[in-house]
Specification:
By secondary structure, the chain is an alpha/beta fold. It has three domains: 44-152, Immunoglobulins (Immunoglobulin-like), CATH 2.60.40; 176-220, no CATH class; 222-395, Rossmann fold (3-Layer(aba) Sandwich). The chain is built from nine helices and 19 strands. It has helices at 2-15, 18-38, 201-207, 242-259, 278-286, 297-306, 322-329, 349-361, 375-383, and strands spanning 45-52, 55-57, 62-70, 77-84, 95-101, 106-113, 119-123, 126-131, 138-143, 147-152, 174-189, 211-220, 222-227, 263-268, 271-273, 313-317, 336-341, 365-369, 394-395. The protein has a seven-stranded mixed sheet with strand order 15-14-13-16-17-18-19, with helices on both faces. The chain is elongated, with a radius of gyration of 33 Å. 33% of the residues are buried.
Length: 407
């Protein structure tokens, strides 16, 4: 418009035609006048963003609600458009035309995101654009701070390891020792100061002296999970990559153990993670990035030093070498389960078979899988076969079937 206005203005002056000069003046004047109509309009726009829920599992939907309003009690905004900034894993940036906003007017727009991979994703900042009624001038700017969506790894339900009272056998998660805690019907002799409400009258009649219920405390055994997050030990990235499979397997095992009352120690090759609650474990794994650590011996050493009382040990591994396999085979007793990911960066199929044989020969129950969806039956077989012969200690999968995420 400016170019045509200048051409018309110069041509009209050269040929002496006032009408052409007037058209040129009008064309040249329209853009500055349009700019005046949008002057300060973008600063009058306010917005808020709500992500519901702010914490989801990978493969599930979260709704993002954006509210855009005109804060001015007097001046309208002619034409408003908005677009939200999204990282690539959350899809294409949504764009909306809000249109005319009168004084104090408010408009709501919303959209869904479905992240396929765990992580902490920023949503925003919001990009707003204001256009004059003639469409000559457009002003755009980024406003506000980004919101965050936490995506936790996918977990699969696993069967319980045993009853909390220890009746499931030697590998049950708890055992009883004498101490102060929950009451147990096993009686003992009355001592001065004992509460008379704890008198066990049947044992008193049987022994001929006052007997009271003895207190016992259930001590929980320490269970340990080792997760291999080395970049070089895993294959290609993505939802079906071996690292995501290993994280999902470790998360499923950790949630199952914490739900069964275990005292859990969770290690990677870089150190120990927070395991106070299942939610804390999932939140920590959601933001766990692959490391550039060369070997797994450091993580194996930390796991062996922290084990204490014999209990369940689970190692979720990428591609490990003979040295790491030998070090793992020498770690403690108790129930030991190793999970090997087929799609890890194994040099060849013989390497995977060799590591499996080394661990199985040392008493480990070995699970070989390609996706976390295959874990539940293999987990039940491995943790329920403590009395099986050594030749039956390796749990193998059938044909590899890719796991399907929730829709």
């Amino acid at each position: 418009m400016l170019a045509f206005g200048l051409v018309a203005l110069v041509s009209g002056l050269l040929v002496g035609q006032r009408e052409i000069v007037g058209v040129g003046v009008l064309l040249v004047a329209v853009p500055p006048l349009s700019a005046l109509t949008v002057l300060g309009a973008a600063s009058r726009l306010v917005h808020s963003r709500t992500v519901t829920p702010a914490r989801i599992r990978a493969g599930y939907d979260a709704r993002v609600q954006v509210r855009v309003g005109n804060s001015s009690p007097t001046w309208p905004v002619a034409s408003v458009s908005v677009s939200d900034t999204l990282p690539v894993p959350l899809g294409v940036e949504p764009r909306y035309t809000v249109g005319y906003l009168g004084p104090r007017a408010v408009r709501d727009v919303g959209y869904l995101v479905r992240p396929a991979v765990r992580g902490s994703y920023p949503i925003g900042p919001l990009r707003v654009g204001v256009t004059d009624p003639l469409g000559c001038v457009r002003v755009s700017r980024h406003v506000g701070a980004p919101s965050h969506l936490l995506v936790t790894p996918v977990t699969v339900p696993l069967g319980p390891l045993g009853a909390a009272d220890g009746s499931a056998g030697e590998d049950s998660p708890r055992r009883s020792v004498s101490g102060a805690g929950e009451q147990d019907p096993v009686p003992r002799e009355y001592r001065y100061g004992d509460d008379l409400r704890r008198v066990h009258w049947r044992s008193t009649a049987k022994h001929g002296e006052l007997m009271v219920r003895r207190d016992e405390q259930h001590w929980r055994e320490n269970s340990t999970v080792l997760l291999d997050t080395r970049r070089g030990a895993h294959g290609a990235a993505g939802p079906s990559g071996s690292l995501e499979t290993a994280v999902s397997v470790a998360a499923s095992v950790a949630v199952n153990l914490l739900g069964s009352g275990h005292d859990l120690r969770f290690h990677t090759e870089r150190g120990r993670m927070e395991t106070a609650t299942a939610a804390g474990v999932l939140d920590g794994l959601a933001v766990t990035e692959p490391s550039d650590t060369a070997g797994l011996l450091g993580g194996i050493g930390m796991m062996a030093d922290a084990r204490g009382t014999a209990g369940l040990v689970v190692a979720v591994l990428g591609a490990v070498g003979p040295e790491e396999a030998a070090a793992l085979s020498r770690t403690g007793g108790g129930l030991r389960v190793a999970v090997l990911c087929v799609h890890a960066a194994w040099p060849g199929p013989d390497t995977l078979g060799g590591v499996r044989d080394v661990l199985a020969g040392a008493g480990w129950h070995v699970i070989v899988l390609s996706s976390a969806a295959e874990l539940p039956p293999l987990w039940s077989r491995a943790t329920g076969s403590t009395a099986a012969a050594p030749t039956a200690r390796t749990a193998r999968t059938g044909p590899h079937t890719p796991g399907r995420g929730p829709r």
